[in-house]
Here is the input.
Amino acid sequence: MWQCFFDMTDNRTHQEGIGDAQDTIAAISTSTGEAGIGIVRISGPDAFAVAETIFHAANGRAYTPADHRKLRYGWIRDGETTLDEVLVSFMQAPHTYTAEDIVEINAHGGRLSVERILKLVLSHGVRLATRGEFTRRAFLNGRIDLLQVEAIHDIIDAQSEAAQQQAVDQLGGGLSHQIKDLKDAILSLLSKVEYDINFMEDAQEELPVLPMLQEAERLEQAMASLIKDSQHGRLVRDGIRAVLVGEPNVGKSSLMNALLREERAIVTDVPGTTRDAIEEGYRLDGIALRLIDTAGLRETDDKVEAIGVDMSRRRMKEADLILALFDGSCDWTDRENLLLEETGDKPTIVILNKSDRGLSSSAVAFLRTLEIPKRPIIGGVALSALTGEGIEALIAMMREYLLGQAPENDVALSNLRQIDLLEKAHQSMLQAVYGMRAGVAIDACEVDLRQSYQHLAALLGEEIGDDVLDKIFQDFCVGK
Ligand code: GDP
Here is the structure.
């Protein structure tokens, strides 16, 4: 249950919804495939009354506060007809998922039981919930902030263990506390600035800017550290986009297959036949890795192949990590150097394939130069996609790259909305720091501080419009 993560009484950042008269909503909260149990959830002021009408407890007792969060056994009946044998939990506001009265009916799984029960509930004046509406109410009722809303979405949507763990940590509220602490610190800085503006001017005294500058610098650094970690947070959440590039026939598809240990990519002797990119999911230490095999890079007159090459370049731009593949049995020439330059400033691992044929001496010499990594090249490895020799070394290098991104903070922002707002907050704080250092009038710096504050408030979901909320909740499922 999500409830156990919170002290429900203190998480109220968005006060707007508290006490608002809300209607009662219901939905099937479990997937309606073949399953042992299915849950119909009801939330709102009439939840208990409706449930008491249709639920017949085996012990014949009506709900008492002692039953709060306890399972009660009985049957759901529509008049004389018993719809199912159930376990029902009554959860009294405000200590519930939505902070409203909630009833959860645990019926038998599959589609029909829960559908019939839901229909019966709706016939009692309850409205069908929209996507994510239970969570939206939890947010509007001030029980969770927007970071925690997004964490709930990410737990459900997680593609890897690491992503799920990160989202659970975010739901725990550690990240929210860090952001709130930063926000509060800006607020007290602002009050000092305002005090100085109002009272010191008359006194014709020199403003004591140094302590304020030091505090602004501290906040700027704390934000910079969170931004740095958010890159890792995003990699964990979305997986790493590792793009395989190289000329046709160097063995990209073979390497992809070797890594995936299955023959899904097309392996062929005809250069340039993998024209579109093939994307496969892969897990490395619980982190999702999206391997993207591209058409390859080489100048060509073939129109179709040229489209593929363009696409490879685009994919390289979107990559988190580039695996640049070469045929190690051939000579390392200027041509190879030029191809490598195409990777720009992206972190790159150079792979010399076909080591089973024996590496050329120039390839060996080039590999030696990579023993001292020169960014953005992380390192070089020789392997054979055919025999599998050296694949482990490549995996170790990728793992090392991931570990090298390890965060300084316990928790990290992970989605683009969050990262974008934090970057804006940081930018404004940096502006304030520069201003103070340059001796700019303190009221000009105040504007920057205020902006930084507002971006952090938006990050937590304070003072944001329905359009932003609608966008976030459209990705939720009904029943969450
Ligand atoms: P791509 O065009 O870069 O995707 O290359 P492919 O994976 O289609 O491989 C091109 C050819 O090289 C095929 O005949 C593969 O069997 C062969 N090949 C790939 N990797 C190796 C390797 O490590 N050693 C040897 N000897 N041949 C390989």
The pocket of guanosine-5'-diphosphate is lined by residues 246, 248-254, 267-269, 274, 296, 353-354, 356-357, 384-386 (CB under 6 Å). Residues 174-203 form the longest helix (30 residues).
